[in-house]
């Protein structure tokens, strides 16, 4: 049933039209990571703060992504908020040809999170470790709401990596 309660849901907007509109929404860039049997990393810009009390964040992950299965299996994830100089890191964790499992972190600076053991990437502006508190159906994605177990910021107040118009950008640059 549709949201109006009559018949099957029909998209009101085409996928290409929505994609084009969303190109106009600037986002920060993160890398989500998991540890354990499902050690994995993935670049993501569908990330947001939800609540300060209790401390909650969300990330949206395609059901077909390896990260989806990893988060479901582990029940925890970490987030590294990337700095402007980390475009190469964002591209690396978006590349499906990179090694899988723990090997994908070889050659990438990181440390294990104290609460989850998930990789926290060196050079990031901030890090969070989360336990999945809720998982919601979001069409072809799942919206994972994470209870924040730990949070830290880098000592240096650097500029963030931004994604806008289908490409990585720098603040103040067109």
From TrEMBL:
InterPro entries: Flavin_Rdtase-like_dom, NADH-dep_flavin_reductase, Split_barrel_FMN-bd. Keywords: Oxidoreductase. One of its GO terms (molecular function) is FMN binding. Residues 22-170 form the Flavin reductase like domain. It holds the Pfam family Flavin_Reduct. SMART domains: Flavin_Reduct. This is Flavin reductase domain protein FMN-binding.
